[in-house]
């Protein structure tokens, strides 16, 4: 609870505010800043646990929201530190030593809390930047892996096409060989048939010649009998 401060006849004010008013403002800002940091930590945990299931648009909105909250918290801490500088000048103007020592401790406490919040914010910022960098590196590696996979798949596809072409060519050769073999077989059959016909014709001719020769001999014998 803020205590009334007797400034005597110094009438010291900063920006129209007394030491007590500045202190109350700093305490409200401390509460607001602490609440903002807690929200940042919750957003950080939520974004880490749901990154795999979130859409790209939802992730972008979450990043923008966190960035806006981060900027707001940083602005509040800067304002608290500015209030501490003003209060540090004011408490030195307090005439009563007991009151002066009391305000000194209060201002120092506010300054320490502000420094602690600033350290926490810096740690969050460092962690967030590292997380974003790691996400970018994973995306690059994934892109390279996808590119390599596409290259490998393209090689496999080309090899499959080559194998299919060889198979088609082999099938065509087999069909050509089968056709040639069938033609040669027909030629062989025709040749054998022609040979058989030639033999039959030769035998018929031989029989005819022998018959004519025999008939000629019989005629000669008949003629010799009448001579």
TrEMBL record:
**Keyword NAD listed:** no
* UniProt keyword annotations, A-Z: Membrane, Protein transport, Transmembrane, Transmembrane helix, Transport
Q: Which GO terms describe its molecular function?
A: SNAP receptor activity; SNARE binding
| Residue ranges of coiled coil | none
Provide the membrane topology annotation: Single-pass type IV membrane protein
* Any single biological process term in GO: protein transport
Q: What is its main location?
A: membrane
Provide the protein's localization: Membrane
The Gene Ontology CC terms held by the record are: endoplasmic reticulum membrane; ER to Golgi transport vesicle membrane; Golgi apparatus; late endosome membrane; SNARE complex
User: How is this protein named in the record?
Assistant: Membrin
Question: What organism is this sequence from?
Answer: Cuscuta europaea
């Amino acid at each position: 609870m803020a205590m009334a401060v007797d400034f005597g006849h110094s009438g010291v004010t900063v920006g129209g505010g007394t030491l007590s008013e500045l202190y109350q403002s700093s305490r409200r800002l401390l509460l607001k800043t602490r609440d903002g940091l807690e929200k940042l930590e919750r957003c950080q945990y939520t974004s880490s646990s749901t990154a795999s299931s979130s859409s790209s648009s939802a992730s972008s909105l979450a990043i923008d929201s966190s960035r806006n909250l981060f900027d707001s918290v940083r602005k509040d801490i800067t304002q608290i530190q500015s209030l501490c500088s003003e209060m540090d000048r004011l408490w030195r103007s307090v005439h009563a030593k007991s009151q002066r020592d009391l305000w000194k401790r209060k201002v120092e406490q506010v300054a320490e809390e502000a420094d602690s919040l600033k350290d926490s914010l810096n740690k969050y910022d460092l962690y967030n930047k590292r997380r974003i960098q790691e996400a970018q590196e994973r995306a690059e590696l994934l892109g390279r892996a996808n590119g390599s996979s596409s290259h490998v798949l393209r090689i496999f596809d080309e090899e499959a096409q080559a194998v299919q072409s060889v198979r088609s060519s082999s099938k065509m050769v087999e069909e050509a060989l089968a056709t040639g073999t069938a033609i040669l077989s027909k030629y062989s059959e025709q040749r054998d048939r022609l040979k058989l016909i030639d033999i039959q014709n030769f035998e018929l001719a031989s029989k005819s010649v022998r018959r004519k020769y025999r008939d000629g001999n019989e005629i000669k014998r008949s003629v010799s009998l009448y001579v």
